[in-house]
Every structure is written in C-alpha cells, then in structure tokens.
Amino acid sequence: MITAPTILSSNLVLIGCIFVFLWLVSLKLRDASIVDPCWGAGFVIIAWATYAQLDLPSQRASLLIVLITIWGLRLSLYLFWRNWATGEDRRYRAMREKHGRSFWWVSLFTVFLLQAVLMWFISWPVQLGMLLSEPLGVLDVMGTLLCMIGIAFETTGDWQLARFKRLPANKGKVLDTGLWRYTRHPNYFGDFCVWWGIYLIAVAGGAWWTIASPVVMSFFLMKVSGVALLESTIVERRPEYQEYIEKTNAFFPGPPH
C-alpha cells in the first residue's frame, strides 16, 4: 500500500526535475516567462502522478483528479495563449537587469525551483486527499461546489478582461464592468475558492491538517505574487486605477463603494 511519505517525496522529485528542465529551456530562449503557463499544468502533473501510484483509486481520488485537471489545464492554456509572442514579462526583465550575468542561476532558485516547491506544498490536499478512501459526503459536495464556483469566476474574469483588451479604444483604460465591478481581481478570488474547495474535500476524508496549504496559497494571492505585486506599479502606468481602487473591493467581491 502506497504511503503519504512515498507520494510526497516522489512527487517533489518529479516536479523538481521538470522545473529544472524548464529552467534549462528558459536559458536557451532567454525568457523566464515560460514558467507562468506551466503553473497550472504542474498541479495537473502532480495530481496524475499521485493517481497513477494508487492501487485502487477511490471516488475521492477520481473527483480530485477531475477538478484539478479542469482547473490546471484551463489556466495553463489561457496563459499560454495570452503570453504567446509577447516576449519576456516585465517582472522577469526587471530581475534580469537587476542580477545581470548572475540571473541564469538566480532564476533557477527564485523562479523555477521556488514555484516547484510551492505547487508541491499547496497541492498537499490533492496528493493526500487521494489516499483517503472514506465515502463521499456533504463536505465533498460543498468543496466541489466551491471549487466549481472558483473555476467559473476565474474563467469568466479572464474572458471579460481578454475581450476588453482586444478593443483598441480601451488601451490604457481600466476594466470596471462585469465581475471586475465587484472585485479588482476576480481571477485571484477564483483561485482562492478553488483551493479552499479542494481543502474541504481533503477534510472530508480526514486530512484536515493540510490546512497550511490553502492558507499559504491565500497569502500569496493576496499579499505576495497576486494582488500586492500587480498593484505595486499599476497606478503609475494607469492613473485611472487609483479611482478604481477607491470604489472597488481588492479581493472579496462586494458592491462598489
């Protein structure tokens, strides 16, 4: 019978090797942005690697693999489409300018391996939830609904933003309609719902102690790589955004002020 330490250790090695390979590709292309579209796909790889090691997958394992596959592939395909032929993202260009010749190895640890470790840790409720064979119950239903709401929120927000940016007349303007009227970051809020939904499914099987994983994801979405990072310079680039900040919730949806 497969054990939790075996699952966790094998998946850490697997995702680490994959992201080292991606790092080598980024050196060849001189574009660290290739890591972004691989974020969602990395979770899918971890989920399927776990599923493949199970002797007899439970209903919970099947539920988790379906939810993570839908969420992860949609996100990766969207980011791949959005970033196609746009060059290296300004975040990585700034890092490249800051570190100069040492960027090649700095990027390995601060971009690629950091993301690999984060996705491995954040996906603990998925990896360990698949090992649990208890029958599906109310918490599983609640977690599935919350996860589906998150996927729908994220998908709709991305579609609305992409449609807005396609119109030349909107260049430099701020989207404040649709879901973006109620939260400045519907895509990040959608991610938040997905991972707390996944956690509820893990709790239903008994893995309540994996709560640190959605907590870390929430912290990064709100305080580090999500809202905080995006809005650190956006007012300088789009002065209208200050008015948008004053009237619209940053993260959790609510009526405009």
TrEMBL record:
<feature type="transmembrane region" description="Helical">
    <location>
        <begin position="37"/>
        <end position="54"/>
    </location>
</feature>
<feature type="transmembrane region" description="Helical">
    <location>
        <begin position="60"/>
        <end position="81"/>
    </location>
</feature>
<feature type="transmembrane region" description="Helical">
    <location>
        <begin position="188"/>
        <end position="209"/>
    </location>
</feature>
<feature type="transmembrane region" description="Helical">
    <location>
        <begin position="136"/>
        <end position="156"/>
    </location>
</feature>
<dbReference type="InterPro" id="IPR010721">
    <property type="entry name" value="UstE-like"/>
</dbReference>
<keyword id="KW-1133">Transmembrane helix</keyword>
<protein>
    <submittedName>
        <fullName>Uncharacterized protein</fullName>
    </submittedName>
</protein>
<keyword id="KW-0472">Membrane</keyword>
<dbReference type="GO" id="GO:0016020">
    <property type="term" value="C:membrane"/>
</dbReference>
<keyword id="KW-0812">Transmembrane</keyword>
<feature type="transmembrane region" description="Helical">
    <location>
        <begin position="102"/>
        <end position="124"/>
    </location>
</feature>
<feature type="transmembrane region" description="Helical">
    <location>
        <begin position="6"/>
        <end position="25"/>
    </location>
</feature>
<dbReference type="Pfam" id="PF06966">
    <property type="entry name" value="DUF1295"/>
</dbReference>
